[in-house]
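If your schedule permits, I should be very grateful for your opinion on a structural question. The matter concerns a single protein, recorded as an amino acid sequence and a row of backbone structure tokens. Could you please explain, in whatever detail you think fit, how the structure tokens follow from the sequence? I set the record out below, with my sincere thanks for your time.

——
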Amino acid sequence: MRALLLSIITIAMIIPGCTRAISEQSRKLVDTDATFIQLKESTEKYIGRHVMLGGRIAGLKNTSEGSQLEIVNFNLSDSGLPEETFISHGRFLATTGDYLDGMIFRKGMLISLVGEIKGKKVQRLDEMEYAYPVVRMREWHLWEGTGWDRMPLYPPSPTMYDPYFYGYGYEPYWYRPYGPPARPW
């Protein structure tokens, strides 16, 4: 009886971990042959097809027609999470007819989406003209806790200061100084 109960609890904990961010209904629409590199090189060939893309939000613009996200592309894992390997093949624009709040869709957050290719749009990116593939979003998922504002601070703030930390991890007591700790401020 105890083994059965333990098995049920284990399975109940594993199953939610196997879910994906994008629904199966949207995943079935995706053209798996279209990579982002191919899409960027010949966007006209893929107009009307659905793709699954993701990356880090670089900007948001709301207009009377809807919202437009500028996204730095990253490859996606099997679960749909953008793998931030510091290798990107470019940027794309994700559009929707809905209003997207800038406090929720913040710069620096990771996003995964499924959408239909609508074409190419040329806009200024810093000092150059850049051709963005345009994707009309069908379904998207924002990944929690991925904004740059949630990254740990380094060096630690004075409230987190540990006078016995010398940068080697958790030191044994014999590496600690003999006197009282000195305040850094």
